[in-house]
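Recall from the previous lesson that a structure prediction takes nothing but the amino acid sequence as input. Here we apply that procedure to Proline reductase-associated electron transfer protein PrdC from Enterococcus hermanniensis. The sequence below is the only information supplied.
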Amino acid sequence: MTQILIPLKQHVGAPCKAIVNAGDHVQRGQLMAEPNGLGANIHASFAGRVIDVDGDNIVLTIDEEQDFSTYLPIIETDNPIKAVENAGIVGAGGAGFPTFLKLACEIPEGVFIANGAECEALLVHNVKQMNEHIDQLIRGMKYCMEMTKAPKGVIAVKGKHRALITRLLKAVDSEPTLDVYQLPDIYPAGDERMIVREVMDIVLEPGQLPTEVGAVIDNVETIKRIVEAIEDHKPFIDKDVTVSGRVKQKETVFVDVPIGTPVKTLINNVGGYVEPHGEIVIGGPMTGRSGDEITPITKTSGGVLVAMPFPQESRKVGLLICECGGSAERMTEIANNMGAEVVAAERCKRMVEVNGRYRCALPGICPGQAQTVLSLKKQGAEVVMTGSCSD
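The prediction returns the following tokens.
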């Protein structure tokens, strides 16, 4: 029998509190864990028996026969925000913020923005979703505009997707409250503050939320899950995922992967590895994290990327840290896997401290880093590793 892990933390906030116990049999769609403070409901994505509940995961032995076309529906409600809350929807683009809290913000003079930037390289599942389900996207935007009282909706997508943009423009031609905005093909085009700057021509201060200037932004897959919750009473139990990199079938999109599916299952389904291969990255290449073959797909897993083996590096490394790319911890992990010694670290000069966290002052507009690089060199660095700087 196959065992899977359902993580109790798939969102911003504390891990959820399990409401099932070892020995319980659960059906697909059954509520298994509830928020412990800020968080979102977690439901069973497979039918199976609970064999363990620890502080991190619910461990299931799944039934041999699975019917992924069915599920236990969430409680019916006339309140769409409550449906989103009951379904356990969080930001599917990677942030994991509970979506019902976003949609509870009223912006009667503002704009609801569908984030279709597909920010990180290699990821293509959001573009596939928009190409194949424009009608669903438009219905979802109307639901979100109704919930937030936004009079206008905008679909933000990179201008390089010309055929998609043509189809989107045609679809919204008869929708007076909807529009399409073409984003530049740069990183991090999907950052909320950058989207506000592009779409609304407003520069948010570091730490300032989009709602403060009349914007609510949701990823296009999040909108898909909102539609499912409202129309089909479906909990957030499946995830769209891109698999790419050192695998035999590149840039493959798997639609509605049951949460908890081990990444090795997806790798096997694209023909396995191309050898030699290195680590498995969960998420995008810029902000993803290292995983392994048993790592489960979660509500925020956008990609399964198989990397090249790490090149070996004997020179001393200095880290140039920014908000938009890999964290200091992630870059240190990469340097260590390369066999290098990290001797210094400096923050990008755009970084400012807000409430104990360092934020980028202007996401997507990278400054020159000569002074920072010279500082790293003075501290003994022979080479520099940076998360995303374009300078």
